[in-house]
Prior knowledge:
Radius of gyration: 17 Å
Shape: globular
Distance between the termini: 19 Å
Largest sheet: 9 strands, mixed
Mean pLDDT: 95
Strand content: 15-25%
Strand order of the largest sheet: 4-5-3-6-1-7-8-2-9
Amino acid sequence: MAKTILVLLDACRYDTCSENAGYLEHLIDEGQGAKYRVRGELPSMSRPMYETTFTGLPSSVHGITGNGVVRPSRCPNVFSICRENGLVTAAAAYQWISELYSRPGRFDPLRDRFQLEGEGAICHGIFYYEDQYPDSHLLGDGEFLRKQYRPDFLLIHSMNIDYWGHQKGGESPEYAQAVAAVTEQLGQLLPVWLGSGWQVVITADHGMNAMGMHGGPTPEQRTVPLYLFSSKVVPGRFEEKEISQLNTAPLLCRLLDAEPAPGMGRKMEIATTCDKKGERL
Length: 281
């Protein structure tokens, strides 16, 4: 079983990432990874799409219908499936991830920021609560968890892109600069992660429109990138058509050699080597 890192770039649009993530695009050009164009589910909001990302279910099924629904996940999810299979989970993430998968109830900064021996589905967590928490600090938190606890599944969840999108809009220089900055930082970490045998998945929950909003069905609000770096995934560009965001959860389970929960996601639309080489499962 190969250890897996999921980097979730909150509010990162497909087009803006494609135009600014130079090192990620280089790896795809060199045949060292796969890239897909993902059609996000609705509403294109953070908390519902976190739950969709980790359960493989639409909001009408999992019940997190907006950011104001504050409760723990009630569905099998990647974190809980890992726990059931004896795998170690960790997360450097925004407070809403804690509320969904780690500690029930409203996030208390004094109590909940560090959950290094977590009782929920996340075994080891460092959670932040300011949207402008620097991505450089977040990646440092993730590296601490990776090195200290050696998890099987590690989530690193960034908010700076979302923050600048809301402040200046999804077509502003500031928004593009936030995308460029975090993907450049990832370019420094990816060789370390991949060289140490980690599988890496990089994607987003939703996008951002020019007015600094998201939640609706336009491509700017819901179309996001998916970069995959794993020997279990056929390399190449598979961007000719959009695939469903419901693929993410079962994909993560397969990378972790864990059986997806019944009903988790649709038929796989990602070319993997899990069965016949190159077959889309």
